[in-house]
Design goal:
Chain lengths: 211, 413
């Protein structure tokens, strides 16, 4: 097995230390940073995402795989910076005002990053202004907001209207999700995209970024 | 017209019949309310937390319009008096941290126990709680970190007692006394409201006590959700040991705490065993054995566990059958009710699951249809209670009316 497929396999098992060492070895063996990222780390994360979607693995496995990916990224970052990689898209991700449930949001971030989309994590309890201003400032093409409470879902509508007010609706796609959110709700509030799970959301985000 | 006492008895019997998987005179209705009663009854959460009577008055107004078969007292309106005097770090609440006074308080998840602290917690749980967990959880109890009883024996000079002269310890002890008094005041008022529910409103109290899956006690209040999920990999043996330890005293404390209460219901709030949070093997190893033991022990003490199953349990239904028949009630959120009826029908009572989103954003006609369909699917043969899927905060009152009316009319035997 090549070191990159071994890396991918170790990442899927959440073996952070092994992944770290393998990235180090791969770099000293002269492999390119981009190749290591895509064929070692992202490919592993992609498989975890697909298995999560199919209920073959669950949140704990995604969390430890993400931890392993981050450990590898720590080592890879300096090399990546000089490889000047274009991210495939850029997303501002957070939970809406009043909502502190961040597990779903964090899974969305993990899956987005697993697809090579750059993420600006604005955290929890985020006001519509912060979502939109951050997106404008960072030149993001996606705002992804997560809500888990019936009382906070309404705040997603404000994100949509703030995007419109600031006149950036043609540049920024608003994605919504979280357990109580549905396609119908997404349509009612005029958001652009809904998915029921984080892996599908990341495929959607990738497609939106390409177009 | 029946008397209040007759109404009370009829409601309790209705629920107990359903719990025993019999067909009651009509389908009981027990929606799980959170912020709704207070906001509906003409109050707000901030004031209800500050002043018990404010919340009680709002509840009275709510109960004038809606009579569920089991009901809440204002227990979820935690009094700011004790939150303030203890300096609790777990919550943000309206009137202090939150601008919107109609919002519920918010629970803040943190690592109140660190990853490397399993060994000390297992070795001496009380010492760990006193020295580390309590000071992290309550800003005004920092002095507890300095207390220790272990070297008071034998050495003659009772060394650790000197700590009681430390200003921080003195401050802590004073804050604890004040907190105790604030809590006791509140308990007395709750007791008064419970008597009022029984004697004047004819509504049986929904809980004698509250319980949590032992895994969740560690997950919610000590390690946090992502951390405990990863601990299943990183600290397998230690996690299992701590679960065992906690299960033992949880059983004793729950049974003792429920003695002398007017109703037998013990509400178990389940959080982290949901379908997406762990695999079947993980559930069978980490989550279910301690919970099962806890439920059975409480049922054996003559109490009725009501298991509030958050999230989806579609892959876990067979496990629930391991609880002896007719002993526990299962309340579902996102679990498929038809499937639940198929698996648990004739064995255990099920509750559910009018979606909170529908109650908030939907139309009364949708609620009527949903309730009728639920009754058609789940009521035949008995063992069904009408309930909301999740806790109701900001529902449209017309939708709540539709839920009650449909259950009353369509749920008659
Ligand atoms: C874990 C949990 C908590 C934890 C949160 C820990 C954390 N760090 O997130 C704690 C204990 C802190 C908590 C607190 C509270 N909670 Co809570 N909580 C839950 C619980 C059990 C699970 C939520 C969860 O993490 N699910 C798993 C994740 C992975 O799922 P998910 O978020 O839906 O995400 C998936 C998809 O939706 C999607 N997705 C998510 N975001 C996005 C975004 C986009 C753009 C897209 C496309 C997709 C997408 O991808 C994810 C993975 O595939 C739910 C019950 C439930 N089943 O939902 C209650 C629940 C959400 N909580 C509830 C409540 C009431 C509260 C509190 C208000 C309680 C209180 N009074 O303190 C506080 C709220 C604090 C606040 N203001 O936010 C209620 C809400 C009721 C209502 N009326 O809406 C629920 C439904 C429980 C219930 N049955 O009543 N909670």
């Amino acid at each position: 097995m090549s070191i990159l497929s071994e890396m991918s396999a170790s990442l899927q098992k959440g073996k952070a230390n092994d992944v770290k060492e393998m990235v180090q070895t791969a770099l000293s063996d002269g492999l390119g940073a981009k190749e290591i990222l895509e064929e070692g780390l992202l490919s592993g994360m992609g498989i975890v995402g697909a298995k999560f979607k199919n209920n073959e693995v669950f949140v704990p496995e995604v969390l430890i795989a993400a931890r392993a990916m981050n450990a590898g990224m720590e080592i890879l970052k300096p090399a990546l910076a000089s490889a000047d990689l274009e991210p495939k898209g850029k997303a501002v991700v957070g939970t809406v005002k009043g909502d502190l449930h961040d597990i779903g949001k964090n899974l969305v971030i993990i899956m987005f990053e697993g697809k090579g989309i750059e993420v600006i994590d604005v955290g929890t309890d985020v006001s519509p202004e912060v979502f939109v201003e951050t997106a404008i400032k960072e030149g993001a093409n996606i705002i992804a907001c997560s809500a888990l409470l019936t009382t906070t879902m309404a705040a997603m509508k404000e994100v949509v209207s703030t995007v419109q007010e600031k006149g950036v609706a043609d540049k920024i796609t608003v994605m919504v999700g979280g357990a109580p959110v549905t396609q119908a709700f997404c349509d009612t509030i005029g958001a652009d995209y809904y998915a029921a799970d984080a892996a599908t959301a990341s495929e959607g985000a990738l497609a939106l970024s390409k177009s | 017209m029946s008397t209040i006492k007759q109404q009370y008895d009829a409601r309790l019997k209705r629920v107990m019949d359903a719990a025993a998987v019999k067909e009651p005179d009509q389908v009981p209705i027990v929606p799980v309310f959170q912020a709704f009663p207070v906001n509906y009854g003409g109050g707000n959460i901030a004031d209800a937390m500050k002043d018990f009577d404010h919340g009680a008055k709002a509840y009275d107004n709510f109960y004038k319009d809606f009579q569920p078969d089991l009901g809440w007292d204002p227990i979820l309106m935690f009094p700011t008096s004790y939150l303030e005097s203890s300096g609790i770090t777990w919550f943000r609440w309206p009137g202090k941290h939150l601008e919107d006074h109609t919002q519920m308080y918010q629970f803040i998840e943190e690592e109140y126990m660190k990853e490397d602290e399993y060994p000390e917690a297992i070795k001496d749980f009380t010492k760990f709680m006193m020295n580390k967990w309590m000071p992290r959880s309550f800003a005004n109890f920092q002095g507890l970190a300095k207390l220790d009883f272990r070297n008071n024996m034998w050495f003659g000079h009772m060394g650790s007692l000197a700590a009681y002269s430390d200003p921080e310890v003195i401050q802590t002890l004073e804050a604890m006394v004040e907190t105790g008094k604030n809590l006791m005041d509140w308990f007395i008022k709750l007791g008064g409201y419970q008597a009022h529910m029984q004697n004047d409103l004819g509504i049986p109290l929904l809980y004698a006590g509250f319980a949590y899956a032992p895994f969740d006690m560690i997950g919610d209040s000590m390690r946090g959700t992502p951390s405990i999920l990863m601990d299943m990999y990183d600290h397998e043996e230690e996690l299992l040991q701590l679960i065992d330890l906690i299960t033992e005293f949880a059983i004793t404390d729950t049974i003792a705490g429920c003695s002398g209460k007017s109703t037998p219901f013990v509400w178990y709030w389940l959080h982290k065993g949901i379908d997406s949070f762990m695999s079947d093997e993980q559930f069978a190893k980490f989550y279910w054995p301690s919970l099962k033991k806890y439920i059975i022990a409480v049922a054996d003490a003559g109490l009725t566990p009501v298991i509030y199953v958050e999230g989806a349990y579609n892959t876990r239904l067979e496990y629930l059958k391991e609880i002896p028949p007719g002993k526990a009630i299962f309340s579902f959120e996102y679990t498929d009710m038809a499937e639940a009826k198929k698996v648990l029908g004739g064995h255990s009572c099920i509750m559910g699951d009018v979606p909170a989103v529908m109650l908030t954003y939907g139309k009364p006609e949708e609620v009527v249809d949903y309730c009728k369909n639920l009754i058609d699917t789940c009521a035949p043969g008995g063992g069904f209670i009408m309930d909301s899927g999740t806790m109701i905060d900001d529902a449209n009152p017309r939708n709540i009316e539709a839920m009650f009316e449909t259950t009353l009319k369509y749920g008659k035997r």
